[in-house]
């Protein structure tokens, strides 16, 4: 069964220590480790933190290797569960689901790894970026970030409800702050602590950090010293209970709570059935953000959260969404030209090279990209 686990989830597991990556040599039995040459150990040793976007690139290269060398084809994303998972994590109405499905057909996204790469790698080469791009565009169409009032023509349309993006951003911040509640460092943040942070840490945070250091950096496989029992390194008794604190809320429970909070704050939108071209309708006055600096105050938190969930940089997500929007714009132009002149040329817009867009860059041109 293809579970809805993405590359961003694997990166979070690595940062949490749930997957061996940091100090991976500790996972090798000591009998084997002592016989390995030092150059082999140095290759396996972690020298820098892994970025989620680099993990995307590694998975893409691995899929190409298996395809070309062994004829193994990776399947497409298991769309229903992973799309539903992203919608819940982003606390969006379920109406986004059907909008994404329609945009997928329109843009021709297959949610598969490419069969090969050209000289320039693009964001849409990655299946999960294709999916998050459609989610962002669907959200902008149904629940735009501006304050312009757009009136649906029917009460059955999903645009009869409006998201309060300020409350949405607040709910997301509360969700993200669960790990650091009660003055804790937070699981996965220990590896990010530097020497400056130590001077501002509380006693409980120091205990939390030292416990993490002991579990990840000290080698317990060595023969114990007879005097080591006189110098315990871990908390015991009441100290361990004080450091641990009360149990945290499960991720799914926290997502459900956040989703209920956002849903309760949805605002109704008036329905105007009158057929009048002067009435602003959903989808009108659509704004395209070409650069990260173009993001308005209400849109930036959503873009940042979506980029973090899928495991890419904000600039990569903005560029991917802009490319897809440009394809849709070209398709609309072709539709209008066909209606006026009956010219069907250029309708295969899914094959259009979006790098021709003004200001488009290769993914390898920025520090945050591949």
Which regions have little confidence, pLDDT < 50, spanning 5+ residues? 237-244, 346-370
Strand content: under 5%
> Which structural category do the helix and sheet elements fall into?
mainly alpha
**Overall pLDDT metric:** 83
Number of DSSP helical runs: 14
Distance between the termini: 30 Å
What sort of overall outline do the alpha carbons produce when their principal axes are compared? globular
What assembly state would you assign to the polypeptide chains in this entry? single chain
**Sheet with most strands:** 2 strands, antiparallel
Task: Report the count of strand segments.
Answer: 2
Q: What is the H/E order?
A: HHHHHHHEHHHHHEHH
**Biggest sheet strand line-up:** 1-2
Helix content: 40-55%
The gyration radius over C-alpha positions equals 25 Å
